[in-house]
Amino acid sequence: MQMAMQCPYSCETATDTLQWIKAIVDFLKPFTFLINAHVVNFFTDKLWEAVDKDWIDCLRNEPIENLLRIPSGVVQDHWPDSLKEFVLTLKSLVLPRKQADLHKVLPGWKVTSLSSVLAQGMNLKKKHEVEVLSAVVNSVANSVSTDTIVDVGAGQGYLAQVLSFQFQHSVVAIDACSQHGKVMNARAERIKKHYAAQTRKFGYLWDFPFDFLYIRNLQYLEITNIMSEHLSHVVQL
Ligand SMILES: C[S@@+](CC[C@H](N)C(=O)[O-])C[C@H]1O[C@@H](n2cnc3c(N)ncnc32)[C@H](O)[C@@H]1O
């Protein structure tokens, strides 16, 4: 039995982190046909037939306890070398799960609780994620004095709208699904009404620089082109 090798990558700098991400992408590339397949296609297209025959022959006869240890990077001596290498490399590429101390990484970073109007439609998990992530994005955006934030894959706009309405950033939200765009716009209207009522009550002046673009089947290159058309500064987070 062998355990996983030590990870040769780090997140010390942005360059190190990118190198790590690139190594993961290169590792996954040969298996995209499997990763991106729907479960149904796994059966209808017999996708298992494209997996190395030696691996299948070996794993088919393994006791279940050994199979369950694969995600922990534990391999058996009698397995084919290529399978052992695959599992050990996979384990060595796993990103750290230990949470970074965001106060250290982003001095001045502060999470504020979302108002009930901005949190509408979110469950507790989503609310927590959006509270933390919006505070991180706000902190990075301020530190580089960005003009506009582009949220690619904005879904129903939970994050994008907090960045716009709560943190007052100019946001371009992009998604491939038009239905999400409709929900997002309806949500934005409700939130605007709320802030307009606050304006009448307290005399604040609110500005909502929020834009939604619906783009089907957007590829990375197209995203980059759209961003450069719309923005003078692009910050990649
Ligand atoms: C997990 S959801 C995003 C959640 C969202 N950021 C939020 O704050 O709630 C991922 C979204 O990415 C969109 N998406 C996936 N691939 C895309 C692509 N190539 N171009 C644009 N949007 C894409 C999907 O339509 C989906 O709405």
* Domain count: 2
Strand proportion: 5-15%
Q: Supply the number of helical segments.
A: 11
Number of strands: 3
Bound molecules: S-adenosylmethionine
What's the CATH architecture name of the largest domain? 3-Layer(aba) Sandwich
Helix-strand pattern:
HHHHHHHHEHEHEH
Give the C-alpha Rg. 23 Å
The share of residues in helices is 40-55%
CATH superfamily of the largest domain: Vaccinia Virus protein VP39
User: What does the main sheet amount to?
Assistant: 3 strands, parallel
- Overall shape: it is elongated
Unreliable segments of 5+ consecutive residues: 231-237
**Strands side by side in the biggest sheet:** 1-2-3
> What's the multimeric state?
single chain
Mean pLDDT across the residues is 83
Secondary structural class: mainly alpha
Q: Examine the coordinates and then state which fold CATH places here, giving the name of the CATH topology of the largest domain.
A: Rossmann fold
Query: Whole-Å distance between the termini?
Result: 40 Å
CATH domain class name of the largest domain: Alpha Beta
